[in-house]
Amino acid sequence: MSVTLHTTQGDLKIEVFCESVPQTAENFLALCASSFYTSSPFHRSYPGFMIQTGSPALGGPKVSTSINGSLFEDELRPSLRHNARGIVSMANKGPNTNGSQFFILFAPAPHLDGKNTVFGKIVGYEGMETLEKLEGIEADAKGKVKGEARIQSVSIHANPVAG
Description:
The protein has two helices and eight strands. By secondary structure, the protein is of the alpha+beta class. The longest helix has 12 residues, at 22-33.
């Protein structure tokens, strides 16, 4: 499966690793299908590291809710690592605290292996161009994004290479 996040900076197509991390994939895809991420801001960014999103548009950056309304367990897989630009992973506040928030890496971050659930990756040239635009958006010293960057809508595709 794949989804396309239509953002203010362009499209990000994400291949979702449904078979490897089924609970995380189900949560992410259900939130996408319910329009939960529509208007969700990219609220935290550290160039050279990552950009974070996934809180509801009106809830603020501290809100992270799963499809069940509670936090869920990590699905850590040794084969899924934070080893490349474009890796998509769950944001959390410690073990087994996954909700709706996720981040996309700008660069490898092996220190996150075993701590955050990797559940996808950006695919395609356009997605990498959009990721570069997102990395260029100004943020303050605490990572708070100053520019306009948000998810406008989401499209779900059964085939990860589908348009």
